[in-house]
Amino acid sequence: MSINRRTLLGAFSAAAAGLAGLGNAAMGVAGSARAQEAGGRRNYRRIATEEAFSIPEVAEALGHITRTAWDVPGMRLLDMIYGEERPPLGQRFRSGLLDLAANPADRLQTMDAHGVDMHLLSLTSPGVQMFDADTAVSLARVANDRLADWVRQYPDRFAGLATFAPQDPERAVQEMERAVNTLGLNGFVVNSHTNDEYLDERKYWPILEAAEALNAPLYIHPRAPSAGMVAPFQDYNLTGAVWGYGMETGTHAVRLMMSGVLDQFPDLTVVLGHMGEAVPFWLWRLDFMGAPSRGRANKRLPSAYFDRNFMITTSGVEDPIALRYCIEKIGADRIMWAIDYPYQTTEPAVRFMNEAPISEKNKAAIFHGNAERVFGIKAA
Ligand code: 1DF
Ligand code: MN
User: Fold this and answer.
1) Are 123 and 53 in contact (CB under 8 A)?
2) 92: how many CB neighbours lie within 10 A of its CB?
3) Is 240 in the pocket of ligand 1 (CB under 6 A)?
4) Which pTM does this prediction carry?
5) Percent of the chain residues topping a pLDDT of 70
6) Is the CB of 96 under 6 A from ligand 1?
7) Positions marked catalytic
8) Which of 185, 263, 345, 362 has the greatest number of CB atoms lying within 10 Å of its CB?
9) Closest CA to 304 of 328, 318, 283
10) Residue closest to 268 by CA, chosen among 206, 180, 336
């Protein structure tokens, strides 16, 4: 997708959002609890774009890993959620992750209580990427089938990013094609490295090629840092969302820019969570230090790849100053709202965007218009 088409479509959906807004105001209470806003606040369609789930089969397989592979980065969190003895936080995460499998009404109730219209669902990190290839391939299929069932059952409440097993790129591509062409899912999630390898490696190019050809975004979600970088994150428990996730995933994104791999896939859309995993803050310096004139693998400035190929979401960064920086730096048409359910609570994530000191037009784009355009979600 070219930036021109993107820009045009963006202008179109912003205009459509304005019309929808008038419609809502004129209708008053639209017969749905979601139409009623706390404090009489202006109503937006709210599409949350990094919303996690699991299924019992994957939870069980991750439980097995916690009993057999202690020496792997990020195991502390996995044990909290999937181990036998779970602290209250681990139990809370686990119930949230498995609520769709248990009873979708539970999650819908939380969404309704806070005016969230839709979750764009993805199998929670580390997905199937810690399993042997055969297990990963078969669990990815099961997870995608289950996900497609929920989307089919509640088409105006759930959309979904498909999982695949990078351990076997050829079968990954088959599953990616099935996920879009047969299941109708909206894109893909990959949880950063796989067996300490990154997607710029040539053996993973078919995955990038498939995402581009299917016109389906690839959301690079965090996981704990790869073995080669994890050491200084270990002793203070920094491997997780506190710092390790962002450093790992930001590094993955920078590798895609600096390897030149994106010259092969100019129309690929990559999505980064967590306000862009710090990359937007680094763009000026990346361009200065990483210019192609310094004899590097990238043909273009890092920011040229970032502008052409990347979108970001607000997951887990409810900071209005960071949001305003990103709007100014990369543009509101490249930012999408997210909660990161169940790891973040819904109410503050909604309030953050409700109260963000930004224009109504930008708010509509970030709350729903950009997600509709980028993930092919039917406008409400
Ligand atoms: C956490 C955060 C866990 C995120 C996640 O998946 C996750 C956490 C295991 O708080 O431990 O996806 N996150 O995206 O920030
Ligand atoms: Mn997340």
Assistant:
1) yes
2) 15
3) yes
4) 0.90
5) 89
6) no
7) 340
8) 185
9) 283
10) 206
